[in-house]
Design brief:
Blueprint lengths: L10 H4 L7 E5 L5 E3 L14 E5 L10 H11 L14 H4 L18 E3 L2 H7 L2 E6 L9 H17 L6 E6 L3 H12 L4 E8 L5 H9 L3 E5 L3 H14 L3 E2 L5 H7 L1 H9 L7 E6 L4 H15 L8 E7 L4 H5 L31 H15 L4 E6 L1 H12 L7 H15 L8 E6 L7 H8 L39 H19 L7
Helix pairs in contact: 5-6, 5-9, 6-7, 9-11, 10-11, 11-13, 14-15
């Protein structure tokens, strides 16, 4: 749709202008730094950074109803740069010109309401937001679109050249980083570090297919992360983990999409998200705070962060009710089917602590909660969800298990509408489903299959058939007729089907 066909009131806003005064701000010492260079931690105190738009107040000059129209009408524009996360350009990249924006189809993933049967089982009305329908099949594409658009902007500006982008990963980050870096060939190349034998074959195939240099190292994700941090401190590389503040900005788009999908009414809304490296939950918190500050929404939804008992440092931190007595202690992770969330020392923990406090204050009461779920519950609920028409990954099973826990604890009421974050596509974790169906989980996973949820193919080969078709010897004539008839009868008997009335 062409701009001249929109209401005159909103036309001047539809194509965003480069604006704002964006800086890196240290969470600890509040020092501010210019964004014209790649920076991940504060040079003064080594704490993590957040991106801050010092000119944010200009956005308050636009009335809330006009903002609603801006975002709603932008949906109808045929401009690639505005079809993804940069529909919300003013909030996640105001200094990036549209010709630097990378759009590979990320963002605006569907919210699919659970069927009545599943909602009744859970005791709540809820949706899955299917992040697996992003280009690399995970939510990481939101942050990568932002981080790589920023790198493209620096390259276009002559401030950067011959970029090597690196990341540590449990799978999804590497797939996304490699994909978006490949789009910027030949100026950007990528290398990823993975914990040896801790990534599913499907996830490993993705960065390899995108041409990244893939290095497997001993240990778990936290060990890979330490190596990547050392590389980013000593060498001229672009770090693409959630320590990169541009990643967080891109992931804020998740919040904006949910607000828009509910027509900006966040009353009695709840968002449930797995924690992992804590970048996603901090982005979601930050996004809703920005929309509240600009008046686009008038209240904050509840947010529930979920962790497995096998990787639960954030949940443990918030078990202490008194903030002054809390002390963050990393944990040694154990094997988890929620593999992308198997992180014992989240990089974004300092962001979590600050943003949770701010969010609760702005909400006027406790609005952020944390839940812990067992590995058994993660697998059982993932399979139950997918048996009811979803494509939830194991992290989606984790959020559904977290919702069940929150419902029992009274955090979620009958009047609430819940959005669950299914962070990736179910096919990325198909190996865990196979292990469940075949009862092959090692003891350390603490998962025993529920027979009602197990499934396996059944060979149909009636014993009275002397000949059956093979790829190199298809049947013909009476042999084929007999094969079809007997096979159909065997299946009908198994399914207890009744014959059609003559």
């Amino acid at each position: 749709m062409k701009i001249e066909n929109f209401p005159e009131k909103v036309q001047p806003y539809l194509i965003p202008k480069v604006d704002g005064h964006v800086v890196y701000r240290c969470l600890e010492c509040e020092a501010e730094y210019d964004i014209s260079r790649l920076l991940y931690t504060c040079p003064a105190c080594q704490s993590v950074l957040l991106l801050t738009d010092l000119g944010f107040d200009r956005l308050n000059k636009i009335p809330p109803d006009t903002w609603h129209q801006i975002f709603d009408y932008r949906k109808m524009l045929n401009i690639p740069a505005l079809q993804g996360i940069y529909r919300y350009h003013e909030f996640i990249g105001p200094i990036i010109p549209l010709d630097a924006v990378i759009y590979l189809g990320e963002g605006h993933t569907p919210m699919v309401e659970a069927n009545p049967h599943l909602q009744q089982l859970v005791g709540a009305r809820f949706y899955f937001k299917n992040e697996g329908q992003n280009p690399s099949a995970s939510f990481k594409d939101r942050g990568m679109a932002s981080a790589l658009s920023y790198i493209k902007f620096l390259v276009n500006s002559g401030k950067l050249s011959d970029v090597l982008a690196v990341c540590a990963s449990t799978g999804d980050t590497s797939a996304s980083a490699a994909l978006y870096a490949a789009y910027l060939q030949p100026g950007v190349k990528s290398a990823v570090l993975l914990p040896h034998k801790k990534v599913t074959p499907q996830q490993l195939a993705q960065p390899l297919g995108s041409g990244a240099l893939v290095f497997e190292i001993p240990g778990v994700f936290d060990d890979s992360m330490k190596v990547v941090e050392a590389l980013s401190e000593e060498y001229n590389v672009a770090l693409l983990n959630s320590k990169n503040a541009w990643r967080i900005w891109g992931q804020e788009s998740y919040s904006y999409e949910i607000a828009q999908d509910f027509d900006y009414d966040m009353d009695h809304k709840v968002i449930v998200v797995p924690i992992g490296n804590a970048g996603n939950i901090t982005a979601i918190i930050s996004g809703f705070l920005k929309f509240l500050k600009a008046g686009i929404i008038d209240r904050l939804p509840k947010i529930i962060g979920v962790q497995s008992t096998h990787a639960n440092p954030v949940y443990r931190y918030y078990l202490e009710p008194k903030p002054e007595k809390r002390a963050f202690v990393p944990v040694k992770v154990r094997p988890s089917v929620a593999q992308a969330a198997m992180i014992g020392n989240p990089v974004s923990m300092p962001r979590v602590i600050q943003l949770v406090e701010t969010y609760n204050k702005k909400a006027g009461n406790q609005a952020i909660f944390f839940a812990e779920v067992k590995e058994q519950a993660i697998m059982d609920w993932q399979l139950t969800a997918n048996r009811n028409g979803h494509i939830a990954c194991t992290q989606g099973g984790e959020t559904l298990a977290g919702l069940v826990d929150a419902r029992k604890r009274g955090i979620v009421s009958e009047d609430d509408v819940v959005v669950l974050n299914a962070t990736a596509h179910a096919l990325k974790f198909a190996g865990f489903q196979e292990m469940y169906f075949e009862n092959r989980f090692p003891p350390e996973f603490e998962i025993v299959p529920n027979k009602a949820l197990q499934n396996a193919p059944r060979l149909v080969r009636p014993e009275d058939l002397n000949v059956v078709p093979t790829p190199d010897k298809p049947l013909k004539g009476k042999d084929l007729e007999r094969f079809v008839k007997r096979t159909a009868e065997a299946i009908a008997k198994e399914l207890n089907l009744s014959t059609r009335d003559s």
